[in-house]
Amino acid sequence: MSDLYEQDFIGWTEQQARLLRDAATHGLNLPLDWEHLAEEVEDLGIEQRNALASQFARLIEHLLKLEFSPSVPPRDGWLESVADARAEIDRRLENVPGLRPRIPDLIRKEAPRATKRAVASLMYHGETAAAAKAAAAEGSRYTEEQLLSEWLPGRPDLA
Fold first, then answer.
1. What pLDDT is attached to residue 62?
2. DSSP track, 73-96
């Protein structure tokens, strides 16, 4: 079990939650709140996934803005946000390698949310044409390889 904990924390939390619930059904005579313990362990894995998903959403949102917005002043901030999100993603994957196989699903789920945020932000700043292009393109246009690398829209040298 400690190997699973070290290699796949998320898998370990899922396994431990199942085992705690199983132990509760067997009536072990211990004064433990089995169901709440299982929920808390399960929530540890959910929190890790949510934190990674949040970084992917931020990354996709700012890549869309970089790709479609003609505005110059906010670009430096978007570039910093992209770099920071990638650093956070790298850190999280290093600390919780069990998240790596879940990346495609996280990207698939977060791309529409990130697109909505990018579109809303562009609209708020009066960039209706950029918002329309971002909405039509959607964040799912970016590959996992692009998101995890130094790639930037319009920079084929970083592909």
1. 97
2. TTHHHHHHHHHHHHHHHHHHHHH-
What are the structural domain ranges in the chain? Answer: 2-158
Spans of the chain, pLDDT less than 50? 159
78 vs 107: CA distance, rounded Å: 19
pLDDT at 1: 62
What stretches of the chain show up as alpha helix (H) in DSSP? 2-7, 9-25, 34-68, 75-95, 103-124, 128-137, 144-148
Positive or negative, the CA dihedral 109, 111, 114, 120 is negative
Measured distance CA(63)–CA(45) in Å, rounded: 27
First to last CA, the chain: 40
Question: CB neighbours of 82 closer than 8 A, spacing ≥ 6?
Answer: 59, 62, 63, 66, 152
- What's the pTM? 0.84
Residue 157 pLDDT: 53
Task: Reply yes or no on domain 2-158 having CATH 3.40.50.300.
Answer: no
DSSP conformational letter for 139: G
Contact 59, 151 (CB under 8 A): no
Write down the pLDDT at residue 5: 83
